[in-house]
Amino acid sequence: MITIETTDIKTIINQQRNFFQTGKTKDINFRLEQLKTLKQLVLENKEAVQEALKADLHKPEFESYATEIGAIKEIDYAIKNLKNWTKPQKAAIPFEFFNYSAKIYPEPLGVVLIIGPWNYPFQLIISPLVGAIASGNCAMVKPSELAPHTSKLISQLIGKYYSPEYITVVEGGVETSQKLLAEKFDHIFFTGGTAIGKIVMEAAAKHLTPVTLELGGKSPCIVDTQINLEHTIKRIIWGKFINAGQTCIAPDYLLVNKKIKTDLVQGLKKCIQEFYGENPETSPDFARIIHKKHFERLAKYLKCGEMITGGETNPETLYIAPTLLENVSLDDIVMEEEIFGPILPIIEYTDIQEAINLINSKPKPLALYIFSDDKNLQQRILQTTSSGGVCINDTIMQVGISSLPFGGVGDSGIGSYHGKASFDTFSHYKSVLKNTFLFDINWRYAPYKGKLSLLKKIIGT
Ligand code: NAD
């Protein structure tokens, strides 16, 4: 395991602080150049990225492009909009303050820390970095130690394309992460599990460092009767089993209207075969579990409820087959913890209120999926549940729309990013009020005698 000494961390932070103080990163043209460099970094090393992801997760090439290398879309979006985002915004002034003008200036925060997870180990470092660069910050990056090939590659590439006083990578595991968290940063952007999110926030609190926590949770997927069954089935199977279910916004469990359950289950089984063949273990399109620890955690879930299909495992290759479960109990471990693997419990409901009650009995999820063309039902669910985001009649795709802020609520996270939200996350909005020297109105100065009635009029009392 790679480790770094605290003194080295302090040295890098100081170098970055000094570089930030030069003001270079505030220059819009500098930021645009650095965003273009980031795009170049990705495009010139696509094959290496894909190979590292294959080595870490057996990630299919298609998925590497769709969900990791595709991060360049975020870079393009930032390049296109940066000049607009960085413009100071005029703020409205009440009539009685006619002698003032007000503006809001976005300014960079300084030196930020980005800590990534292993499931989309490349994209979940690059995407927040887009925001950090666009907003004019220096950044320290710690990729996940559980995806060592990708972590090493990110370190090499960032080292090649950027100077360490501007952006640098610190590789390592929990110990390194904790050493980093002990230091003062101007923002911490963390992607990972809810339990570690609490540790990050506690460490940040010691320095009053603001945090963005992109966490996980159990994202429910409701399936009503008013659907196109074929489309619903494909979109659920794709969203659940992409990256072998190791996706923070994968449908965690299905809540299915009893009337449609038999047809849906038959269709889901068939679809798994169509997508991954008779034996998904031999499919080039199905990823593996990241680590033995996670394999063992997931293997326990296979004992819950009744197996509809799947359940096969191979501890040597960390393979777990796409699995559908039914008749799980709400007390089963598979319904208590975030699954984060290729196992999908299916729960039926008779009345939609049962599904809503179940969702509301659990911590607020990162994503909520509704398959229904019934607008009243869609509205009812939107109004009676809370989640980081919602996607209607599809899965996962919400994460790819740069104009939609992406983040959780409650246990699924704090703050959001993507597109303008990334710029906002890594910026401070500085309010600036300006008076004129042309004249001075005396209404607020002592002695106050005779001025109260005018004040009352201004306040409106
Ligand atoms: P994790 O929380 O175990 O690890 C994330 C990072 O935290 C790693 O870099 C790791 O080195 C570091 N870390 C681990 N333990 C630590 C500790 N005790 N102190 C300080 N740092 C520590 O998460 P993971 O297993 O890599 O990722 C899976 C989780 O991430 C899931 O819960 C998933 O839902 C969530 N996730 C969320 C998003 C999102 O965008 N909201 C995206 C991907 C994954």
Describe this protein's structure.
The protein has 17 helices and 18 strands. With 461 residues, the chain is an alpha/beta fold. The strands form 4 sheets. The protein has a 7-stranded mixed beta sheet, sandwiched between helices. A 6-stranded mixed beta sheet has the order 5-4-3-6-7-17, with helices on both faces. The chain has 2 domains: 6-215 and 413-429, Aldehyde Dehydrogenase, Chain A, domain 1, CATH 3.40.605; 220-407, Aldehyde Dehydrogenase, Chain A, domain 2. The N and C termini lie far apart (67 Å). The longest helix has 19 residues, at 258-276. It binds nicotinamide-adenine-dinucleotide. Nicotinamide-adenine-dinucleotide is lined by residues 115-119, 124, 142, 144-146, 173-174, 177-178, 181, 191-193, 196, 199, 214-216, 248, 338, 340, 366, 408, 413.
Quick overview:
The chain is of the alpha/beta class. The protein has helices at 6-21, 28-44, 46-57, 61-67, 72-86, 123-134, 148-161, 174-181, 194-205, 229-241, 258-276, 292-301, 333-336, 352-360, 375-384, 420-425, 452-459; strands spanning 89-91, 101-108, 111-115, 138-142, 167-169, 187-191, 211-214, 220-223, 253-257, 306-309, 313-314, 319-320, 323-326, 343-349, 367-371, 389-392, 413-414, 427-434. The radius of gyration is 25 Å and the shape is globular.
